Amino acid sequence: MTPQETAEKLGLTFPPQQPGYLNLCIRTGNLLFTSGHVSDLKGKVGGGVSVEDAYQAARDCVVKILRSVHASHGTLNGLRVIKLLGCVNSTLEFHEQHLVINGASDLLHEIYGKTTDGYHARSALGFAQLPTNAAVEVEAIFEVK
Length: 145
Description:
The chain is an alpha+beta fold and 145 residues long. It has a single domain (31-144), classed as CATH 3.30.1330.40. 35% of the residues lie in helices and 26% in strands. The protein has 3 helices and 6 strands; from the N terminus they run αβββαβαββ. It has helices at residues 3-9, 51-73, 97-117, and strands at residues 25-28, 31-34, 37-38, 79-89, 121-127, 136-144. Strands 1, 2, 3, 4, 5 and 6 form a 6-stranded mixed β-sheet that branches. It is globular and about 40 Å long. The two termini are 17 Å apart.
């Protein structure tokens, strides 16, 4: 099954996107860089937002990323996931940002394979605040194979 077919089987849809203030996915050479995509979930992880809810929010960020990639590239096929940057709006005491960003990585592993094209480098960082009070923000780099 191709990544596109896998994503569709998981229920992902790819509605047309209108250009916005910033480019959500831009290609240079054989790389696709995405802008940060924020979660609809608001608040601080460790201060009212649970790890479980934030994990789902990180997964939802990747859904948005994949929609932007699809709008730019025309398909999810023919890509390799290179790098993720996961930002977690968290309290100073919270130290499990990696568990939150696993939501993003796990979805990419599901679609692209955990040991093949979905095997990526990643950073998971805690932030004092994110735009719009989003609980999570994720950006990604893909290689066009």
